[in-house]
Every structure is written in C-alpha cells, then in structure tokens.
Amino acid sequence: MTSTVRRDSVFANRNFRLLFGGSTISMLGDQFTLVALPWLVLKLTGNPAALGLVLATMAFPRALFMLIGGAVVDRLSPRRVLIAARGANALLVAMLAGLVLAGDIRMWLVYAIALGVGLSTAFAYPAGSAILPQLVRKDQLQPANALVMGMRQLSMFVGPALAGVVISVGAHGAQPQAVQDAEGLGLAFAIDAVSFAFSLGSLLLIRIHSDFDPKPAVGGVLSNVASGVRMIWADLPLRAFMLYAAVVSVFVGGPLQVGLPVLADTRMDLGAASLGILMTANGGGMLLGSFLSGIASRFVRGRLGLMVLTIDSLAGIALATLSLVHSTITGAVLLAGTGVLAGIAQIAIVSWIQRRVAPEMMGRAMSVLMFTFMGLGPISAAIAGSLLNVISLTSLFAGAGLLLTMIALGCMRSPALRSIGATRARMEAA
Fold this sequence. Notes:
Elements: H1 2-8, H2 14-45, H3 48-75, H4 78-101, H5 107-131, H6 141-169, H7 182-205, H8 209-212, H9 221-234, H10 236-267, H11 272-300, H12 304-321, H13 328-356, H14 362-375, H15 377-387, H16 393-411, H17 415-418, H18 424-429
Helix pairs in contact: 2-3, 2-6, 2-7, 3-5, 3-9, 3-14, 3-15, 4-5, 4-7, 5-14, 6-7, 6-11, 10-11, 10-14, 10-15, 10-16, 11-13, 12-13, 12-16
C-alpha cells in the first residue's frame, strides 16, 4: 500500500522533482526583485509616476509578446523556451545588481533593464505553465499544480520579509553620492540572479517528449495566436472570464502595484521592511487560500463563477478600507485577508481552465490568461502613478476598491460568468 502511494506521488517523478526544486528557489529569489525594484525607483526619483512608468516599461513588451510567446511554446519545447527566457532574466538582474552596488545606476538604465525583463518574461510565463503537463500524468496535474502554486504563495509569504530585511541592512552603508539603501538593494538583486542559476541547472537536467518529438508547425506564429484567440472566443464561459479578468486587472492591478510601495514609504515607519511585511502578509494569505481552494470548490458545487465574483466583491471592500490605514499591522491583516480570497479563486480558476482546454492549446490559453493579469495590470500602473500626482493615496485605494466591488456585483447578472464551473450537461439543460 505504501509503495503504491509513493509510486503515485508526483515526487516519484524525477523530472517533477527537478522542476519543483529549481522553481522553488527561483520563485523565492523573484520576491527580492519585486520588493527591491520599486524601492530603487522611489529612492532614485521620489516620484510615484516614475515607478508606474518603470512597471509599464516592463508591461508593454510583455503584453505585446506574451500571446506570441504562448504560440511559440506550443510549437517548440517549453523547456528550451524556458531556459532561454530565464537565462536572459538572470543576466539582466545580475547587471542591475552590479550597477547598484557600483553606485553607477541611472534611471535610463533601469528603464532599459525593465524593458528586457518584460520581453523575456513574455516567453517565460507561458512556457512555465505549459511544461507541467509534459512532466506528469493527467491524473497528477491537479496535485502538481497545487504544489507549485502553493510553493509560489509560500515564497510570497517568506520572500518579501527577507527582502525587506536585506534592503534595510544596507540603509546606512551607502556612500553619500549613491542611492539610499544601495548596498541592501544591490544584494537583493544579486540574490535573485543567483536563484536563477538553480532554476537553469534543474531545467538542463529535465527531459520532456517535445525535446525529441516536436510537433510539426502548422501555419505561422501569428496564425497560431489567432487560432488560440478564436478557441477562447468560441467558448462562452471562458471568453466571459477572460474579459472580466482583463477589466479587473486594468482598474485594480495598477493602483495596487503602485499604491503599496507609496503607502509603505509615506505612511508607515518601517520603510522597506513595512513593504516587505505587507507583501508577506498577502503571500501568506494566498498560501492559506490555496489550501482552502479545494474545500471551497466542493462547497460551492459547480457555482465557481459566483464564488469568484463574491470573493472579488469582498476584496474590493478590503482594498477600499486600506485607504484609511497608517499601521503596518493593520495593513498586513487586511492584505492577508485579501490574499486568502485570491488564493482560493486563483487555484480554482486555473484548475477549471486546465480541465477545459485541450493540451495542444494550453500554451496559448494560459498566455491569454497571463496577459490579462501580467500584461494589462502594470500598464494601468503607469496611469495610477500619474494619478497620484493629482489625487491622494486615499482616493486611489478607495476608488479602486469600490470599483472592483461594483464590477463584481454587476457581473453577477451575467449567465456566462455564473455558469463557470457548471457541467456542460447542466449548462445545456439550462
């Protein structure tokens, strides 16, 4: 009995162990850059609009090329695409670390590196989501996804706090002519660069069938992108969710990305450590939510769409409440709560999409999903950063939160969104 359980475990699969181990280290390293980059921009410029512009500089190439990235992944080996993309990321982050530590960092260099990172991640994200179905059996996809996503949330729980401590250590070590916190910032970027080396090493040891038996390419890359979009458009519930996710990302994602670093910098007394604590609380909440997602999905019994809309309406109220917060602890509690809700919804939705979409279209389907969040969200950050020059931080959070609640409540009237999670037979009967 025990040996059967062990054979059925995803950890019995050598390729999965390699991917899981390398990705875990890399995901933890990513959190250092996610905290350090906005802090670097604020210390260089003191201008929230500049932070929004840097995030948009990463978002534009990611948005423009992510759909192409999904098509390329479906045509080629996701492992090879992932090696190339993460290798480029490692070089760019290492360059940023060296420039900061040398005291030679300039904003134009930050923009150039952000542009390169955005381009490489346009290929890395769909490749990372498409490689898993080639590593494990179909019946192991859900537990494998839960492990990977759970570890991502754990890295969001642990990483930002560690990053905040690392940056704070260098707060008094920088030279007068250098950017404030330069030593800590440079070390944070260096840790992320080293973490990429572990991910690349594991990918070099992995073997998947598309490395040796690639599918013959049919049509051009752009026609492949178009076929993926047509597939999503023809599936009414899938189309409705993608459109809904895009609207939420545009109106809410940007204000949150820009607003949290500004909140920590202007209202809270722990500086970079406050930002790390806030992000850690959100990541910890998402980790808990990922464990609760299966229970929640069974409880709603086919009403996944209504569950997601209800979660978003509650998250909007929490985000609006954040507009009144001046305490790191209070902010952390609110963000932990929203993290729990987001973790429940994220795992449930991704699992629903993976069950619904054919394997040969998975790269393109996941690239569209990621485009709605990672491509569009940072673009709205540029707008949010500019808005902070004319409105208060309180107005930004309150407006974004209340808007999210109104959008979610309004979408509850949509039959297509309400039908998400229902069986096809039940939908046809309706």
